[in-house]
Design goal:
CATH topology of the largest domain: Rossmann fold
CATH class of the largest domain: Alpha Beta
Number of domains: 2
Shape: elongated
Number of strands: 18
Number of helices: 8
Radius of gyration: 22 Å
Strand order of the largest sheet: 5-2-1-6-7-9-10
Strand content: 25-35%
Mean pLDDT: 96
CATH superfamily of the largest domain: Formyl transferase, N-terminal domain
Structural class: alpha/beta
Largest sheet: 7 strands, mixed
């Protein structure tokens, strides 16, 4: 089949690579316009654009998908199918109807749960024990199309969102190819989503990173790993902002207020929470590099009784 591929971040690259290695023809890659990235704010290619150029695949980066020339460009390629993986924008109805077989999406959740922009992060933050990938038909409503295939994967208690996302990207790529065969042969069996069971995974914001120490140790631990590698969980100690990179719940409670440091060892800072203690194992002071707690404590006076707060 002739395929037009829509995608932007690294999550979409394994699917694109697998399609390029398949018997199908990726005629065009549509990705978002180049943006400034990183500390230096240099304009760089998206991961999908870089992968496409490495394979000499034409790349198209429209500012607005509703512009008339976008439909004209897609129409010239006469696509049989559109494949969408984390493109980052809603695709208008006119484009959805252009490919002969419509468009399908590789979505990193077990739909209808976690529709939206941040399904992997929200699953980790909420302490889900499993997640997965759903291949669905793309419709006008957000992530609401009929499902064509699913795969599940457990979420490890220490797993961060970036590690889980990498695994799901590979799962989604492998899951897609059999679906393409079914679509081509007319044997696909779409399954409607249960609208009553749908949930929404909103886009992450920096403000969500501020730790609420009245939550349980497990909830804060989930937030630390769910907001890694962006926007990060953070707190304040004596007015200085600290990014929390790795933490671990541990049993034990005291009469101390949540946020109070109850123990300082060679490798950890133990903090009272609303339920249980949280051991901080890796962190990053504002404007400095990430470091293990052992290194952070070197030359710093951090002692029991001090308290993390919100400002």
């Amino acid at each position: 089949m002739v395929i037009v591929f829509f995608g932007t971040p690294q999550f979409a690259v394994p699917t694109l690579e697998l399609l390029l290695a398949s018997r199908h023809c990726v005629a065009l890659v549509v990705t978002q316009p180049d943006k400034r990235r990183g500390r230096g704010q240099k304009v760089t290619d998206s991961p999908v654009k870089a992968a496409a150029l490495a394979h000499d695949i034409p790349v198209y980066q429209p500012e607005r998908l509703r512009a008339p020339e976008v439909a004209e460009t897609l129409r010239r390629h006469a696509p049989d199918l559109g494949v969408v993986v984390a493109y980052g924008k809603l695709i208008p109805d006119e484009l959805l109807q252009l490919p002969r077989l419509g468009m399908v999406n590789v979505h990193a959740s077990l739909l209808p749960k976690y529709r939206g922009a941040a399904p992997v992060h929200r699953a980790v933050i909420n302490g889900e024990e499993q997640t997965g990938v759903t291949i669905m038909q793309v419709v006008k409503a957000l992530d609401a199309g009929d499902m064509l295939a699913k795969s599940t994967r457990p979420i490890d208690l220490e797993e961060t969102s970036d590690a889980l996302e990498r695994a799901l990207a590979d799962d989604g790529a492998r899951l897609l190819l059999p679906v393409l065969d079914q679509l081509e042969s007319g044997t696909a069996r779409p399954e409607p989503q249960n609208e009553a069971a749908s949930t929404y995974a909103a886009r992450l914001t920096k403000e969500e990173g501020l730790v609420d120490w009245s939550q349980s140790a497990r909830q804060i631990h989930n937030r630390v790993r769910g907001l890694y590698p962006w926007p990060h969980a953070y707190t304040y100690l004596e007015g200085a902002r600290l990014i929390l990179l790795k933490a671990r719940p541990k049993p034990g409670t005291t009469a101390s207020a949540p946020g109070t440091i109850v123990d300082v060892t060679r490798d950890s800072i133990d903090v009272e929470t609303g339920n249980g203690r949280l051991s901080i194992l890796e962190l990053q002071p504002e404007g400095k590099r990430p470091m293990q707690t052992r290194e952070f404590l070197s030359g710093r006076s951090v002692r029991p009784g001090m308290r993390f707060d919100s400002a």
